[in-house]
Amino acid sequence: MSRVAVIGAGVMGNGIAHVFAQYGWDTALIDVSRDALDKALKTIETNLERQVKKGVGSGEWAVQTLGRIRTSTSLDGAAKAELFVEAATERPEVKFDLFRELDRAAPAGAILATNTSSIPITSIAAQTQRPAQAIGMHFMNPAPLMQLVEVIRGLDTSDATTQRVVAVAKALGKTPVEVHDSPGFVSNRVLLPMINEAIFCVLEGVATPEAIDTVMKLGMNHPLGPLALADLIGLDVCLAILEVLHRDLGDDKYRPCPLLRTMVAAGRLGRKTGRGFYVYGA
Ligand code: NAD
Questions:
Q1: Of 57, 85, 87, 112, whose Cβ has the fewest other Cβ atoms within 10 Å?
Q2: 140 C-alpha vs ligand 1 centroid, how far in Å?
Q3: Sign, CA torsion 262/276/87/166
Q4: Residue having the nearest C-alpha atom to atom 39 of ligand 1
Q5: How many CB atoms are closer than 10 A to CB 65?
Q6: Can you give the pLDDT at residue 282?
Q7: In the chain, pLDDT over 90 holds for what percent of residues?
Q8: What is the rounded average pLDDT of the residues 120-148?
Q9: What's the N-to-C CA distance of the chain in angstroms?
Q10: pLDDT digits (tens, 9 = 90+) for 156-191
């Protein structure tokens, strides 16, 4: 395989497109918003410059990588892709509509992967006539830097599809880990309750965000505290994941902290809006 389409050009989509293009894939990057596409290209360019400074590749390498990415506001721009990686907004109805559309538009042999953080792969796959070729390919944020790709098998995902996606992840220099379909998979089932608990600590005045993050960094050796990580992920995405965990596992231990809801309602979504638990410069 050498042609990929990445659907959604937000926080994750730009990083995923960057990784594929870096490894020589012809990459279509698609979003309903032209603004999001322009912003994504700028981010990729900046991140490539950073990689050049670090010696990952030459200036010429960066130009070639960027040159492999074509942007489009329509799925027509992805007609020949062999692999689709959907990284659109974390809402079931968005993903269900997109998978029905992708199923109609994608070549018969193409794999339809989703980067969802928490929505059951089986329910997304069930929107298509090819559930054996639908799978979770869960990149971590920031995708160009993080080693893990969580590969999630839906109920009907075939061995062949899983093996192909595992091979692609390895070819992208990543370490794939296979897990079964369950709300939040492994990564977010374990991570989000910790982030939620840190937000409860802020709400209850146990400590400041800085103090909470310092405890987790220095005490638990986490590279980033849970609140800084929540800002990086996006507080809206955190809330969406917790809602899925709460509803689908039916356990109140996943109840989203009211402060998280308030911050999302106020538009304080973290880095992407310049303010979350911390304030970010221009
Ligand atoms: P985001 O809000 O930054 O970006 C989503 C993008 O999808 C937006 O640019 C939006 O315009 C676009 N979009 C919405 N509907 C679309 C459609 N029908 N067709 C094409 N584009 C559409 O979100 P994000 O943080 O990049 O998350 C994307 C996916 O990746 C979600 O499923 C999320 O759960 C998952 N994810 C996020 C993180 C993270 O740290 N943010 C990590 C791993 C996985």
A1: 57
A2: 12
A3: negative
A4: 233
A5: 22
A6: 64
A7: 95
A8: 97
A9: 39
A10: 999 999 999 999 999 999 999 999 999 999 999 999
**Domain 3-180 = CATH 3.30.70.20:** no
Q: Which residues are catalytic?
A: 117, 138, 150, 188
Rounded Cα–Cα distance for residues 70 and 47 (Å): 17
Indicate the domain borders of the chain.
Answer: 3-180, 189-273
From 14, 89, 123, give the residue whose CB has the most ligand 1 atoms within 8 Å, as the site to mutate. Answer: 89
**What sign has the CA pseudo-torsion 146, 281, 267, 191?**
positive
How much distance in Å is there from the Cα of 71 to the middle of ligand 1? 16
Per-residue confidence band for 122, with pLDDT thresholds at 50, 70 and 90 = very high
Could you give the angle at the alpha carbon of 203 between the alpha carbons of 262 and 280, nearest 5°? 65
Burial of 74 from C-beta contacts in 10 A (0-12 / 13-18 / 19+): exposed
Fold classification of 189-273 is: N-(1-d-carboxylethyl)-l-norvaline Dehydrogenase; domain 2 (1.10.1040)
Ligand 1 neighbourhood includes 152 CB (under 6 angstroms): no
**Which atom of ligand 1 is found nearest the CA of 233?**
40
Distance of CA 206 to CAs 194, 198, 211, 229, Å? 15, 9, 9, 19
Partners of 176 in the beta sheet?
149
In this predicted model, what pLDDT tens digit does every residue of 187-216 receive, in sequence order?
999 999 999 999 999 999 999 999 999 999
Closest CA to 121 of 113, 110, 130: 113
Two structure tokens written together for 23: 């490894």
pTM more than 0.85: yes
